[in-house]
Design goal:
Length: 392
């Protein structure tokens, strides 16, 4: 018997399927089952298999186990003594550990996977992401989220260019922008054109513009110095310690603030000292027959002209400075008021100052002091009481 065996001799067919060696052997009825022996060597196992001794689908070549059709990079398989294995495919049911190599074009190292600049490797949630499927794709250019109909709906480029979001809400997120960054609703916000409407935030402040407005003209401007400008209506429950100029405030409580009708010049200010009427540095006039400012003969004085409900002077209205016009103006009526009146009400009827002494509708009125009641009263006529006479 030859001591060189093929896979056929070992009980394998051409595709390495083990077949029973003694399945066709019939033992005599009165014999015992023989003891297991090596039928090929007469009881002595082979000490080695020489290269080339197995010439079917399985072979040993120079100490390597390999298939007889092995061709590196083409087909077959090979497993060497160092532990290297080459095969067309593999199914591994346990753990797999790798510190070098390639997976789908991504380089494997001790820390993970990386792109070495060659090829176009990517990771995607479906084979057709970007060409028919919803999903996410990660490649050297960044991260993209695709909708099967809309295409790219989220784009996070890896080159630092502007990200884009087609729609949606971002919640519970913190964004930090450097001093050169701009967050805006469009590229044309605040450029003064018909497309300037939108909101812009940069390191100088917050701006909200409408069409044809520049940033400096925006309806809302809040600077990083704390200055705020609003051209619309402000609705708030409470505003504390601020200066509000040229705005409309509805339904609010203002505490500890100064309200003034202008930054300087002729203005009215409301402070903790009451309502103050000031002329400031800008001269102005009032009282001409056309109810227009601009009469150079009748100018406001300087400083505070009058107070309303001032805590120092203790009267509701206090005139603080002499002017070239009357301190208080009451309309010269043709007849007594016909509506409800209370004791103490004042009016001027046909040039005479009247005071209500009997409440009612209408009330009862009397002249104040000794004065002429005729409407033809002329300022050139001296009063009946001389200012030189001391009051009683």
């Amino acid at each position: 018997m030859s001591n060189k065996w093929t896979t056929d001799d070992l009980g394998y067919d051409r595709v390495l399927v083990r077949t029973p060696i003694l399945e066709d052997y019939e033992f005599p009825e009165d014999s015992e089952t023989p003891a297991a022996t090596n039928v090929f060597t007469g009881g002595t196992s082979a000490s080695s298999i020489q290269s080339g001794e197995l010439t079917s689908n399985f072979n040993i070549v120079k100490g390597y186990l390999q298939s007889s059709n092995f061709s590196s990079g083409v087909n077959g398989w090979k497993f060497d003594a160092v532990g290297n294995l080459e095969a067309n495919s593999a199914t591994i049911r346990g753990s797999l550990y790798a510190t070098t190599g390639l997976i789908g074009g991504w380089v494997v190292d001790d820390d993970g996977l990386y792109y070495d600049g060659t090829g176009t490797p990517n990771i995607r949630t479906a084979e057709t992401v970007g060409s028919g499927s919803n999903g996410v794709l990660l490649d050297a250019d960044g991260i993209k989220v695709y909708d099967s109909v809309l295409g790219v709906v989220v784009n996070l480029p890896s080159d630092g260019s502007n990200p884009s979001f087609a729609s949606g809400t971002i919640e519970n997120t913190t964004f930090e922008i450097n001093t050169n960054a701009v967050l805006r609703t469009s590229e044309t916000v605040g450029d003064g054109t018909a497309n300037s409407a939108g909101v812009l935030i940069n390191n100088s402040g917050f701006y909200a513009c409408e069409a044809n407005q520049t940033l400096g003209e925006g309806n809302v401007r809040i600077s990083n110095a704390g200055d705020a400008y609003f051209t619309g209506i402000i609705t708030a429950s409470q505003i504390n310690s601020c200066s509000i100029t040229g705005s409309q405030i509805t339904g609010t409580t203002l505490i500890g603030t100064t309200i003034k009708t202008a930054e300087s010049g002729q203005r009215t200010e409301i402070t903790s000292e009451g309502i103050q009427l000031l002329s400031g540095t800008t001269a102005a006039t009032y009282g001409d027959s056309d109810y227009l400012y601009g009469d150079a003969e009748r100018k406001y004085g300087t400083g505070v002209l009058g107070y309303i409900n001032n805590s120092t002077y203790k009267v509701p209205i206090y005139i603080n400075a002499e002017q070239e016009v009357g301190d208080i103006h009451l309309v010269n009526r043709n007849d007594y008021p016909s509506g409800a009146a209370e004791v103490g009400d004042l009016c001027v009827v046909e040039g005479s100052l009247k005071i209500c002494t009997v409440a009612g509708t209408p009330g009862g009125w009397e002249s104040v002091g000794a004065q002429e009641a005729e409407s033809s009263f002329s300022p050139s006529i001296s009063p009946s009481i001389s200012p030189s006479i001391s009051p009683s």
